[in-house]
Amino acid sequence: MKIAVLGGDGFVGWPTSLHLSDQGHEIHILDNLSRRWIDTELGVQSLTPMDSIQERTRIWHQETGRRIHFHLIDLARDYEVLKRWLSDNRPDAIIHFAEQRAAPYSMKSDRHKNYTVNNNVNATHNLLNALVEIDLDAHLVHLGTMGVYGYSTVGAAIPEGYLPVGIETIGGETVKQDILYPANPGSIYHMTKCLDQLLFQFYAKNDGVRITDLHQGIVWGTHTEQTRRHVQLINRFDYDGDYGTVLNRFLIQAAIGYPLTVHGTGGQTRAFIHIQDSVRCIELALKNAPKRGDKVKIFNQMTETHRVRDLAELVANMAGAQVAYLPNPRKEAAENDLVVHNEQFLELGLDPITLEQGLLAEVVDVAKKYAYRVDRNRVPAISAWTKDIAATIEHDPEGKRLKSVS
Ligand SMILES: NC(=O)c1ccc[n+]([C@@H]2O[C@H](COP(=O)([O-])OP(=O)(O)OC[C@H]3O[C@@H](n4cnc5c(N)ncnc54)[C@H](O)[C@@H]3O)[C@@H](O)[C@H]2O)c1
């Protein structure tokens, strides 16, 4: 297949591009390199030394003889350029990673809120609009998030996208419908993913666009089979307070001898998936495309759930670190359960890598190996969700605000 990977220079997009190229697909990465610019804005860098996209693709060609093509395009701003590229190249499938993906970054200031909404919603809409305009029947696979469901506990397992409901009519009968599970975003970033869902629902219904939306958990792990092949193919690893996911921050804090900082009680439960499983799920989604006229196909792309304080204990025990509890900069439930249906990918053959199996390698092969590159001042997560929360949290990068250490 000819596959366009939008956002293919990013954390999940790069190993996905390698994985699919390895399988013989013709891969075109479309990316505006905004993620690299955001590193510059924040004054941070990937823990792992990461080469330019041109250099990465050169090494891939040198190692495998396969070519990955790179096109510098801003999906949110260059609508005509995107439309022309799609029209000239007519890919069979499009994988859409190209959005601003950090909740804390999206909540930093009014400018960051505007940027995230403009970038994410326009990128998705430009793409859908162009597909219809040029009559391109490509299968669109989008990376959404488990965060669209919200993290409130209702005591029932979260279904894969759709909730069967009964609606009572005026005549007293009950009409059955599958509706999108009620959106409950917890940040501006998550809100854009909820808006994406509605755009997909409309374009699938109105224009028959074939869409798969993958509601993904937090992706952990650094290496895949292909990124291991050469040191310059290494994936990015974000550890800073805005882009570093909770697990990445724990790994880095343990590696530099800093207490693992848990926000609030640490009772927040989150869904996780290893990067190798993430790229495999995308491959499975490509092989199981919906038909024209079908409703949007939704998968929950996660393999396990963990409570944040349990994760902290796990990493602390593995690496001999301490755990510290801090005020939470987010506005969220202090504690939540999370039970998720994910049978669809398991039935298609996904055999998950568990945290228990893979975490030690992350501690040793990644966090400890590259710890010399860490700027410890950039690890704390300080973007506050509201002005009131900001006022109660005193920023102290050296850790004086650590409330209790266990
Ligand atoms: N990383 C995770 O844990 C995770 C979890 C759930 C969902 N997701 C979703 O998966 C996708 C990829 O995540 P990631 O961690 O690889 O993010 P990332 O920030 O590393 O990669 C995103 C890529 O998209 C590019 N991009 C952003 N806006 C663009 C635009 N307007 N035009 C062209 N390119 C643009 C960036 O330059 C970057 O290379 C995101 O949509 C994210 O919401 C990620």
Helix-strand pattern:
EHEHHEHEHHEEEHEEHEEHEEHEHHHE
* Assembly level: single chain
* CATH topology value of the domain at 2-238 and 274-301 and 336-354: Rossmann fold
Per DSSP E runs of 2 or more residues, the count of β-strands stands at 15
Based on secondary structure, the structural category is: alpha/beta
Biggest beta sheet attributes? 7 strands, parallel
Q: What is the mean predicted local confidence, pLDDT?
A: 94
Structure description:
- There is one protein chain.
- With about 400 residues, the chain is α/β, with parallel strands linked by helices.
- The chain has a domain of about 280 residues: Rossmann fold (3-Layer(aba) Sandwich).
- The chain is built from 13 helices and 15 strands.
- The chain has a 7-stranded parallel beta sheet with strand order 3-2-1-4-5-8-12, with helices on both faces.
- Helix 1 links the parallel strand 1 and strand 2.
- The radius of gyration is 21 Å and the shape is globular.
- Bound molecules: nicotinamide-adenine-dinucleotide.
- Nicotinamide-adenine-dinucleotide (NAD) binds next to helix 2, helix 6, strand 5 and strand 9.
Name the descriptors.
single chain, 406 residues, alpha/beta, Rossmann fold, seven-stranded parallel sheet, three-stranded mixed sheet, 13 helices, 18% strand, globular, disordered C terminus, binds nicotinamide-adenine-dinucleotide
